[in-house]
Write a structure and sequence with these properties.
The protein is an alpha/beta fold and 842 residues long. 56% of the residues lie in helices and 9% in strands.
């Protein structure tokens, strides 16, 4: 549109031959409405004590003036003196966008109600669908309406991108500026001014930008999820713009002719419809004829038909594969894909009978939904392979950051960044591919309705037959499939269960028998003892029973019994059922310490915000000095003081280690024990010590294992720069046998180092609780293993072990196969009770 004044005065001839001037009331009315909206926002926001800032008022009024001046110019250019019904809806959208712009400007100075901002943006997006429907129903489509609609879309996307860029990064502005960069490029390149052929995908991408940015602005998602969402939006935008630019370039000769003939730059790009008489929302237009003006020849038609057939086959394969792709690692085989998906039959049948617009809406929903289902399936497979359970949307979404940190420690920052970038690109490509395939498949189904319904009926009969007889090609995998629907149902059910569980867990936390126990009645049976709670990473039942490496571990335990006996120590052992599996060790730590079952990150987060009484609290109140020693931590851990109330936190940052890392392990276990002895245990005239020590030498990936050295040579750890390590090379993880053997060697090192430390420290007052945090990954322990981990209590004073005589644990460091198995959450109460802690009388 050409710039104009707020209300245009255009000359017209009266019946008397005199010139008169027509005043366009719509822009002026809209400007007044915009000012009233800003006043209403000022009052609404003012209730929170903030109000609209002068900058917000300036931005809002300026945007309102520019928008309505542009509208007035458009009315003059197209020689019309009134707006159609759909245009009035678009004008309301423009006014709402001005209100959003004011709130975004206000957010730079102070906080604004996110709910209000998102509500205005969401209402504008809803009205974007309404104005198109009104235009079609009233048959008032017009070029001006299409152009105005496009510019309002572009303006709202720009405003939202500015808001989201503040939290997600300045690169998000690329989305908002893309439309204006396209317009700027038209001036030096006239061929870009040509009208574009109608394309429904362009409208879909434009709508998606507003939706994605509004969701990102709501702050409902995590930072990682928000950035991923905006990356998807940018990828879709780049694809749509790129396709338009490519079309204009390949047709640039005809485009130059059209550009010369049309002095008004056409609307182009993904946030606009072409400037043509039928360009109003939802209208259909024909693509331009070839440059020569002649119909394509037989050879070209054959090529086009071949390409169309190939695209249709690709769409069928993508949709089918997405629907039947397995969600279990054991089903990842060719046989796992040989199924008939009921969801696909229903989709094709609906597409063949629905009108055009509902069919496109169906495809627009199903396409991204298919990609989402595939993502859920991949996550399920990954979590089963790692944690022996399915992905839980609410509980597990926060593990992305932890997973990236672990990966960086294992394979390096550069390789991890490449992996993350590859995942993001793959997910974006998946959403684009499934969406394209859904549109293609539904369109072909509608164009060949008779054959489509016949094929669906035939396959439906076959599906019903296989379903009745429960036919399977592989175990637990029926040919008559409803897998994708089940995945969605399971995710929804899991979310609902998590929401209900939150209230249940809150009640469990409040029920705490030992919370108000007087300090003089806590742990009286351990007074004067140093107590070390040592978690041996990934030390599970599989380490000591039934695996190829178990004899090596059992030999170390037997040797450890002899070492400890020679120093006057003895042990008793049993099993605990861990709250986690394969990783996420902090769930096990918090479960054992708090006495409640913490089997998810959501439960962990809820627990950290309470004053639940822990073992570290009990020792601290009873007079012990309490410390936490986690060599894997390279950052401040606030929960260590706010929840566990430790007197001192040790990490890789403050123990003086100068040696190399061992993949994930920041330092060998031997150095961890030596540093604890130097920093705490060797101090004279000290209080008894309680320390939780979380060792890491047996942490996956088990490809770099240190050697045990004389304790006098440990020093600051620099000696490990000169000592060869047990190093796995080559395609290590593709060979489960090698992985299992390496895991066994890491456990052997961790246990032998621990027993050597007990003997070397020679602390007659030492009591050590040694246990595993969880079973190793399924590649080591299998997909159907339990969650049991060994636990042993080691002491020099026979009276200590006598107090747990009623537990039924067997003597020695190796628990027998028939040893008792307790839930890990029961250990706190049993331990406090065994060592003479008495809950207060009710």
């Amino acid at each position: 549109m050409k710039p104009s004044t707020l209300y245009d005065v255009s000359p017209e001839t009266t019946s008397h031959g005199r010139m008169m001037r027509t005043v366009h009331a719509a822009p002026l009315t809209a400007l007044i409405a915009g000012v009233l909206l800003l006043a209403g926002l000022a009052v609404t926001v003012g209730h929170s004590g903030v109000g609209l800032s002068p900058a917000a008022w300036a931005v809002g009024v300026t945007c309102g003036v520019i928008t309505n001046a542009a509208l007035a110019g458009g009315l003059a250019y197209y020689r019309t003196d009134r707006l159609g019904p759909a245009d009035w809806v678009t004008l309301v959208r423009a006014t709402l966008a001005v209100g959003v712009a004011a709130l975004v400007a206000d957010s730079f100075g102070d906080s604004v109600p996110v709910t209000l901002l998102v509500s205005l943006a969401a209402l504008a997006l809803v009205l974007d669908a309404v104005d198109g429907w009104v235009a079609r129903r009233t048959r008032t489509t017009a070029t001006l309406g299409a152009r105005f609609d496009a510019e309002v879309d572009a303006f709202l996307i720009l405003v939202l991108s500015v808001y989201v860029a503040r939290s997600a990064g300045a690169w998000v502005l690329t989305i908002g500026l893309a439309r204006y960069a396209f317009l700027a490029a038209e001036w030096p390149m006239p061929w870009m001014r040509a009208p574009l052929p109608p394309r429904f995908w362009r409208k879909t991408v434009a709508a998606a930008q507003g939706v994605f940015l509004t969701v990102a602005a709501s702050h409902l998602l995590s930072r990682t999820a928000t950035q991923t969402l905006v990356i998807v939006a940018l990828a879709l935008l780049a694809e749509s713009f790129g396709r338009d630019v490519w079309w204009l370039w390949t047709n640039r000769r005809g485009a130059l002719t059209a550009a010369v003939a049309d002095t008004e730059p056409p609307v182009a790009g993904p946030v606009a419809t072409p400037a043509a008489p039928d360009a109003r929302r939802g209208s259909r237009g024909a693509a331009p004829e070839p440059e020569s003006g002649r119909a394509p020849g037989p050879r070209r038609r054959t090529v086009r038909r071949g390409i169309a057939l190939a695209l249709t086959i690709l769409a069928v394969v993508v949709v089918w594969a997405a629907l039947v792709s397995p969600d279990q690692p054991s089903d990842l085989s060719v046989s796992g894909f040989l199924r008939i998906p009921l969801e696909g039959l229903v989709l094709v049948a609906l597409a063949s009978v629905l009108p055009v617009i509902p069919r496109r809406i169906l495809a627009g929903i199903v396409g991204p939904l298919l990609a989402l289902v595939v993502v859920f399936k991949v996550l399920d497979i990954g979590f089963i392979d790692t944690f022996n359970r399915r992905f839980d949307l609410l509980s597990d979404k926060s593990y992305a950051g932890t997973g990236i940190e672990t990966l960086r420690a294992s394979i390096g920052r550069t390789n991890t960044n490449l992996v993350v970038a590859g995942i993001i690109v793959g997910v974006v490509a998946l959403f684009i591919l499934t969406t394209f395939s859904a549109f293609r498949l539904t369109r072909v189904a509608a164009a060949n309705r008779r054959w489509t319904l016949r094929i669906v009926a035939g396959l439906g009969a076959v599906w019903a037959l296989f379903w009745v007889f429960g036919a399977q090609l592989i175990s637990q995998t029926p040919i008559a499939s409803t897998l994708s629907a089940s995945v969605l149902v399971n995710e929804v059910s899991a979310v609902r269960a998590d929401i209900r569980d939150q209230a249940v867990f809150a009640k469990e936390i409040k029920h705490d028998a030992f919370r108000n126990t007087p300090a003089n009645q806590l742990l009286t049976g351990l007074r004067g003892k140093d107590v070390l709670l040592v978690f041996v990473e990934a030390y599970g039942q599989q380490a000591v029973q039934g695996r190829q490496f178990s004899p090596e571990v059992d030999a170390v335990l037997s040797k450890g019994d002899k070492q400890l006996a020679s120093a006057g120590f003895s042990a008793r052992s049993g099993f605990l059922d861990s709250a986690t599996y394969g990783g996420i060790s902090w769930l096990a730590h918090s479960t054992l310490q708090s006495g409640v079952w913490v089997n998810s990150q959501r439960r962990y987060n809820d627990l950290m915000n309470t004053n639940r009484f822990t073992l570290s609290d009990a020792f601290k109140e009873a007079g012990w000095r309490t410390v936490d020693d986690v060599p894997s931590n390279d950052y401040y851990w606030p929960q260590g003081t706010s929840f566990y109330h430790y007197d001192k936190l040790y990490s890789r940052l403050n123990v003086g280690y100068k040696g190399p890392t061992f993949t994930y392990a920041s330092m060998p276990d031997q150095y961890t024990y030596a540093a604890l002895q130097r920093l705490e245990l060797s101090k004279p005239h000290r209080r008894p010590l309680f320390a939780e020590v979380d060792t890491v030498s047996s942490h996956m990936p088990w490809n770099r294992i240190p050697q045990q050295i004389p304790w006098s040579e440990v020093g600051n750890g620099s000696i490990y720069n000169r000592i060869p390590m047990d190093h796995e090379t080559g395609a290590f993880w593709s060979n489960p046998t090698r992985v299992q053997a390496a895991y066994g060697r890491s456990i052997v090192y961790s246990l032998s180092t621990l027993f050597s430390f007990v003997k070397h420290d020679d602390d007659k007052n030492l009591v050590m609780i040694m246990l595993g945090d969880h079973q190793p990954l399924p590649i080591v322990s299998g997909h159907h293993s339990n969650h049991d981990v060994p636990i042993s209590i080691i002491a020099h004073d026979p009276a200590v072990l006598k107090q747990i005589g009623s537990w039924g644990w067997n003597a020695g460091l190796q628990p027998r196969s028939n040893a008792p198995v307790w839930p890990m959450s029961s250990f706190r109460n049993n331990f406090l009770s065994a060592f003479d802690s008495h809950p207060p009388a009710k």
